[in-house]
Amino acid sequence: MTISHIGLSTRDLDSTRDFYENVLGFKAVRCDIIKSAEGGQIRHMFFDTGRDQLIAFMEPQGVQGIPADYDAGINEGLGVPGSFYHFAFEAGSVTALEAKRQELLAKGVVVTDIVDHEWAQSIYFHDPNGISLEYCCLTRDIGTEDDVTMQVRVERSAQAMRQRWDNLREASAAALASATL
Q1: This prediction's pTM
Q2: Could you tell me if residue 132 is inside a domain?
Q3: Residue 53 forms beta bridges with which residues?
């Protein structure tokens, strides 16, 4: 079995659509408006991320009981580092990962250098909602006895984990703000 879709929220579906279609290249495949009986509505949109897997966003507009201001990026509202809740897209290969990084940079996205995890390589960035995103590719087969044995493989402070993601989030927000000027 695979994941059918991941459902997320946005406070600005137009910016979200622009990012997922024009920056990441994911095609919108279904758009709905859900009317609330108490007033207001929710705009709902699905994007095809490949291999029959989807990512969906819901944007509440004046719906009773849903706050107008909330953290659609998830992590900040929960007070946890950006790595706790993130979504990773398959890059396919190390070469494709580097090409994706260069493409994102050319489109004005703040993106990390390639991070080598020993078993995979990744780049990290944020969408306009502040959602932590990743492109990743495996660099070797996984699932060995060593891989599935719980053990310390990395040691860093909680502050260092938080700071790394805070720096990326702040740089992303600054880039977004300058792009809208």
Answers
A1: 0.89
A2: yes
A3: 50
Closest CA to 131 of 181, 165, 161: 165
Verify that 132 and 167 share a domain, yes or no: yes
Residues 92 and 148 in one domain: yes
For residues 117 and 30, membership in a common domain is answered with no
Q: 16: closest CA among 28, 4, 2? A: 28
Inter-residue contact 72 to 129 (CB < 8 Å): yes
Q: Is there a single domain that holds both residue 142 and residue 123?
A: yes
pLDDT in tens, the chain (181 residues): 788 999 999 999 999 999 999 999 999 999 999 999 999 999 999 999 998 899 999 999 999 999 989 999 998 889 888 889 999 999 999 999 999 999 999 999 999 999 999 999 999 999 999 999 999 999 999 999 999 999 999 888 888 878 887 888 888 878 777 776 6
Contact 2, 18 (CB under 8 A): no
Query: 44 is written with which tokens?
Result: 């709902």
Range of the domain at 118: 80-181
